[in-house]
Amino acid sequence: MPNPRTDQPEPVEKARLAAVASLLGAPSTLRKVPRSPLEAHEMLLNGLPSRALSHLVQNLLFLRWDDSFTKAIGMSHRTYQRHVAAGAKPLSPEQSGRTWKLAEVLAKATSILGSKQEAEQWLERPAMGLNQHKPIELLATPAGVELVEEFLVRLEHGVYA
């Protein structure tokens, strides 16, 4: 959220955007790190470079490309492989948005849980506060994403159920 006096993003917002961009390999994979949610939106509309998704996938410690991951990203493993082989072709806005959202959730979970490894493992474990669903499974729909984000806020504030 911008500061009303300066119309600049708050430091927390800048840090969040930087953390997400870092998971996507910025600055080497992105033309620039977005400085505001609007810049992120415009970047996603134009399509993330496929190498941003490739960087995210190659740097996962625990998560693997399975059915839940496919649904979270909105792309099959074979389509991902074609994107990597093609190199320069950007992701669609839909694929870009899903990739960004996964990185955003992973960044938030890392911040709350203390390590990327713990955050990735958390995404794969059934959560009592999510009716025993794995968070990664819920990332397949906007409603599920909202549930995961709300659950992360509860975890951040020490409210688990």
Folded structure, characterized:
There is one protein chain. The chain is an all-alpha fold and 161 residues long. The chain has helices at 11-23, 37-46, 50-58, 67-73, 77-86, 93-113, 116-124, 135-138, 142-156. The protein has one domain (11-156). It is 61% helix and 0% strand. The longest helix has 21 residues, at 93-113. The radius of gyration is 16 Å and the shape is globular. The model has no long low-confidence stretch (mean pLDDT 91).
Nutshell version of this structure?
The protein has 161 residues and is mainly alpha-helical. It is 61% helix and 0% strand. The protein has helices spanning 11-23, 37-46, 50-58, 67-73, 77-86, 93-113, 116-124, 135-138, 142-156.
Properties at a glance:
mainly alpha; globular; 61% helix; 161 residues; 9 helices
Distance between the termini: 28 Å
As a percent range, the share of helical residues equals: 55-70%
The SSE order reads HHHHHHHHH
Rg calculated over all Cα atoms: 16 Å
Which band does the percent of strand residues land in?
A: under 5%
Structural class by sheet pairing and helices: mainly alpha
Please report the number of helical segments: 9
Question: How many domains make up the coordinates?
Answer: 1
DSSP summary, beta strand count:
0
Mean pLDDT: 91
Main sheet: strands, sense, barrel? none
**Global morphology:** globular
Secondary-structure map:
Layout: H1 11-23, H2 37-46, H3 50-58, H4 67-73, H5 77-86, H6 93-113, H7 116-124, H8 135-138, H9 142-156
Helix pairs in contact: 1-6, 2-6, 6-7, 6-9
